Amino acid sequence: MKQLLLAALAVLLVCFSATAQETSIQPVLQEHQETILKSSRKTIGPAIDAIAASGLPQAQAVLEAWANKEMWSRESDGQFFKGEEAEDKQVRLIDFDTGDVVGAIAKSDLKQLKPNSGIRAMISTALVRFQLMDPDPAKRQDALTSIQRDPEASLLEPLRASFESETDPVLLAQKQRLERLLTIGYDTDTSARITAIDDMSGDLGVDLRATLNPLVATTRAVAPEAVPEGINVAKILSPGEDDFTEAQAYDMLVAKGLAPPRIPDDAIRNALADNISGGRVAGFPLAILDNDENRRAAYIRLAEEGLAPPFVTEEQIQASLGQHVFFDSYADRSPEVTEAAVAALRKIDTKVGLNQSLDLVLDALSLASIYFLAAIGLAITFGVMGVINMAHGEFIMMGAYTGYVVQQIIPDHTISIIVAIPLAFAVTFAAGVAMERLVIRWLYSRPLETLLATFGISIALQQLAKNIFGTQARPLTSPGWLDGALVMNDVVSISYIRIAIFVLALIFLGVFLFIMKRTRLGLETRAVTQNPRMAASMGINPGRVNMLTFGLGSGIAGVAGVAIGLYAKVTSELGSDYIVQSFMTVVVGGVGNIWGTLLGATMIGFLQKGIEWLNPSNTLAAQTYMIVFIIIFIQFRPRGIIALKGRAAGD
Amino acid sequence: MQRSFIAKNPSILIFLALLALFTLGVTVLSEGFGIGVISTSFVKTLGKTLCLCLIAVAMDLIWGFTGILSLGHFAFFGLGGYMIGMWLMYERTRMIVVDSLSQSEIPATQSEIVDAIGNQIFGVVGSSEFPLIWIFADSLFLQLLMVVLVPGLLALVFGWLAFRSRVTGVYLSILTQAMTLALALYLFQNDSGLRGNNGLSGLQNLPGVTASQDAVSMWFLWASAFALGAGYLLAAWVVSGKFGSVIKGIRDNEARVRFLGYSVEAYKLTVFTLTACIAAIAGALYYPQAGIINPAEIAPIASIYLAVWVAIGGRGRLYGAVIGAALVSLLSSWFTGGQAPDIPLGVYTIKWVDWWLVLLGLSFVLVTLFAPKGMGGLIDLWTDRRSPDRHGADLGPDAGALREQEAEQ
Q1: Structural domain that includes position B178
Q2: A457 to B177: CB separation less than 8 angstroms, yes or no
Q3: CB half-sphere exposure, A101, CA atoms < 13 A
Q4: A445 CB near a chain B CB, below 8 Å?
Q5: In this predicted model, what pLDDT tens digit does every residue of A541-591 receive, in sequence order?
Q6: What CA–CA distance (Å, rounded) separates A94 from A89?
Q7: In chain B, at which end, N or C, are there fewer CB atoms within 10 A of the end residue's CB?
Q8: Mutate to test the interface with B, among A634, A635, A644, A651 (most CBs of B within 10 A)
Q9: What ranges make up the beta strands (E) of A70-132?
């Protein structure tokens, strides 16, 4: 208010001087010569405002020069000039109005104006109004950013004034938005603020919430008997309700000095211990002081004797609580504004909630695609062939390490990923074929032994990886174009790498479907899986088909490893982190059906994110509940979401 | 006339005699009661190994004889350990707290004592309240009961759910693995009420016992040996009678046993719960010797190692499980303890600490491929008992059935 009055005063003064001499700024400066030379933060305000409000084109230059410590005052006549230091301790003076060099004068005849940081801040605030109308759009943008960072009531007017001259539509929109926000925060007119709040409600911007939140922030206070006048009360509280316990209420009273402090149990104990005389405290033998009742009785007697502060009984506490009123109050005095702000925030919260669920869905989707990627190789080896491969996780790990090694050789991240994907496929394909030939082939009729033998391979591979690459995590850096995130608004965003993994999962799904349904290998695989003997008598070589199918499943695991490695750190435990979830995905989805695996991954992903959302601090609990849920789910659909029927089901 | 089951299985007597001889030998050589050749820490290792042998017997009962490859039995083992650990920790902390509070002039109230114990135990996880699951922790008898009841109940509920919906084979294995993973993850949380990943510690100190660790370790060795003997006897008795025939039938062809009118689910559930209880007892004896228990102990990998021991030892025969567990766990601690000499190969030195797991994994593959009978098969060679050569013809109709090697038993 005071500032505004001063500003108005300054405007009046300037009007007079401006009419007297339209083109020169020197009179304005002269008028405030004393305050300018004194350079005190407390008194300088009118001078700055006068310069800024002079309406002269030179004002900006004057303020800039002043802030940059380039303004000098000639001691002989007190005139102000822009000065440039020249040789021989001389200063070249430049006239503000004409821009002509007046001449060089010795430093000793001049006084340099050195505004302190407080004054410089005031000057730059005054400068903002010029910058808002600066012909250079970058400067206007800077001005807007500085207002956003440091909003102030005095900036509201210049901001509004700068609308007309604004030519850039983007900047204009920004200015208008900022104007609304400043109006909400600082306008003196209550109805204008409410209109601004109504205009903006439903907007998701963090800046709006940052403007509104201080308006609805409450402070808790206590007053004797009734709420004092002139306070914008949010809520009257009654102790013992709505998360406001009687203990908290009483503590507030104690903190305000409105009630004597409660005597806690250990204070009683200490007081008793201090007053032991001859094995007794206040006449009570020590031995019976091993329960709270006797201790309290002894303490009350001590208090009666004046040896301890009086004991505060529960009745006294209740009485003093009853004598006071507890309330939450808003800092802003106007109830209409706070009401509008509360309503607007509620509206925003609903919208934010909706957007957060959208964000959650995206998160769940990307988690689901990671599980799907990890499980799709398993869907071939376990789902189609029925081979339990506990080393599947280690194939994922091998793929990730292949990617890491390739990146050591090829420094360009894009090329190295393009090379790493087929290479990882080749490496794990070979490993898978070797494993099938050497181990799994001999155990086809004994699934439990397959599980154990592949587990043996798994621990050996894991330890080998540890021996080769060490135990610390190795980075697999994604190419630069995968950095960053797709931002939809301040709530919803998704990183490009997650989108890439999602796309990769879809590609894998397509590849799998193509191979199984459209190629000779897929046909033979399905035949061999259903009935190896019959397939053999049709001229299919079951050994070869099994080998290739297993290799394919392992190869896909390797490629998945590269993708997962981009997303998580590469360690020797990378695979075992995913193995149980992968099996879960396949089992929940239904063995032998890729759509089932897709559904299983989706379900597990959504479930995990959903549980995490309910209990955000605790991902461990989320996993626990998820597994328990899956165990229960299997009760109802023992063969998974999509169960194979008829002959395809085997058995 | 019916012969007694011991007469039918002379191996039981041999086993018990060897166990007694072993216990006696360790006692004579120990620091606590003998000439001090075996250090106390090694006595503890041996005692722990006996407990692992006991859970291996349980595993053999459920896998080797009933054909259920459970990858979750270490969950029961760990739970047993947690149950006894709760009493040990509570009681010991209580004694310390009471002792320190009795120093003060004013006698402590009951609630002060409980608060102080809670602070001592749960301080590490930033709490001081006793969770509900500690309700029986002040009573040894009730907590000992919990050792059997809690894992037994978990096994009963889980088994009932799993067997009722006819989850079999590898699906059941994965499900049991998920169960132990879920339990481990749950216990890892700080607010699980069991001190999160800190676990329970200081379990080697028996409250109220002033004897040295030398003696205490021997007591536990005797108790472990006794439990192993009793567990072995129980398992042998279970598998030798009619019940044993049925569960072996379930292993070889579940459908056929069901069609014969047996309630397959009830049999499976009985064995599953029984073995869970045996595992829990083994755990309750193991962790006071280990001194500390934390959720990492019941991670799925532990249960898989259990299967490894039994497979290497030879499943389907109880002494095989014992041999496997003893041999592999002792070898494991020898290799990973850094006692095994390194092998210099000129350019590279094989450090067994790094390579032991590779060796174990590969030998495990080899055993599965070439010696499905495990080390127990060596005893067959010794007793000159050979499987009939059927030229590959099936003995059992089920693909997963143990065929030839079972023919004679």
Answers
A1: 5-297
A2: no
A3: 8
A4: yes
A5: 988 999 999 999 999 999 989 988 887 888 888 887 788 778 888 888 877
A6: 16
A7: N
A8: A634
A9: 71-74, 80-86, 90-94, 101-106, 110-112
DSSP A308-345: SPPP--HHHHHHHHHTEEEEEEESSS-HHHHHHHHHHH
Query: How many domains does chain B fold into?
Result: 1
- Residues B69-88: tens digit of each pLDDT: 899 999 999 999 999 999 99
Q: Which residues of A touch B115 (CB under 8 A)?
A: none
CA–centroid distance for A238 within its chain:
35
The 3-state secondary structure of A284-305, one letter per residue:
EEHHHCCCHHHHHHHHHHHHHC
pLDDT at B153: 95
pLDDT for A4: 57
By the CB < 8 Å criterion, does A449 face chain B? Answer: yes
Task: Say whether pLDDT at A529 is over 70.
Answer: yes
| Cβ-nearest to A620 among B161, B185, B307 | B185
Helices (H), A379-412: 392-409
Q: Is A267 exposed, middle or buried (0-12, 13-18, 19+ CB in 10 A)?
A: middle
Paired with A361 in beta bridges are none
On the question of pLDDT at A630 being above 90, the answer is no
- Give the type of residue at B204: Q
Element (H, E) at B225: helix B213-240
Say how far apart CA B179 and CA B156 lie, in whole Å: 13
In a domain, B351, yes or no: no
Kindly state whether residue B312 falls inside one of the protein's structural domains: no
Q: Using a CB–CB cutoff of 8 Å, tell me whether B34 touches chain A.
A: no
Q: How much is the pLDDT for B404?
A: 47
Give the helix/strand (H/E) hosting B208. none
Distances (CA, A) of B225 to B44, B76, B290: 12, 20, 16
Q: Which two tokens stand for residue B105?
A: 């002039």
Residues 6+ apart with CB under 8 A from B278: B54, B55, B57, B58, B61, B231, B234, B235
Q: For residues B3-11, give the mean pLDDT.
A: 74
Using the Cβ of B402 and the Cβ atoms of chain A, whether some distance falls under 8 Å is answered with no
Task: Give the torsion sign (CA, B151, B154, B157, B159).
Answer: negative
Residue of higher predicted confidence among B204 and A237: B204
pTM for the complete prediction? 0.77
Residue with tokens 């960072």: A149
Helix count (H) and strand count (E) of chain A? Answer: 26, 13
Q: Does the beta carbon of A291 lie under 8 angstroms from any beta carbon of chain B?
A: yes
Q: Is-contact A75 A81, C-beta < 8 A?
A: no
Most confident by average pLDDT, A70-84, A360-374, B142-156:
B142-156
- Structural domain boundaries in chain A: 2-131, 137-216, 218-330, 353-649
B191-to-B85, B152, B181, B182, B197 alpha-carbon distances in Å: 18, 24, 17, 15, 10
Which distant-in-sequence residues (6+ apart) come within 8 Å of B92 by Cβ?
B202, B205, B207
Residues sharing a CB contact under 8 Å with residue A524, sequence separation 6 or more, in sequence order: A535, A540, A545
* Closest by Cα among A237, A290, A248 to A265: A290
Residue B338 lies in a domain: no
The model's pLDDT over B311-347, given as tens digits with 9 standing for 90+, comes to 888 888 888 899 999 998 898 888 887 777 777 777 7
- The reply to whether residue A445 touches residue B364, judged by beta carbons under 8 angstroms, is no
ipTM: 0.81
Of B185, B301, B365, the CB nearest to A453: B365
Structure-token match 């080769």, residue found? A468
Helix ranges, A519-651 (H): 520-530, 532-537, 542-567, 574-589, 594-614, 619-636
- The nearest CA of chain B is from the CA of A156 a distance in Å of 50
A 120-139 residues inside an 8 A Cβ radius of B: none
Give me the phi and psi of A26, to 5 degrees please.
-55, -45
* CATH code assigned to A353-649: 1.10.3470
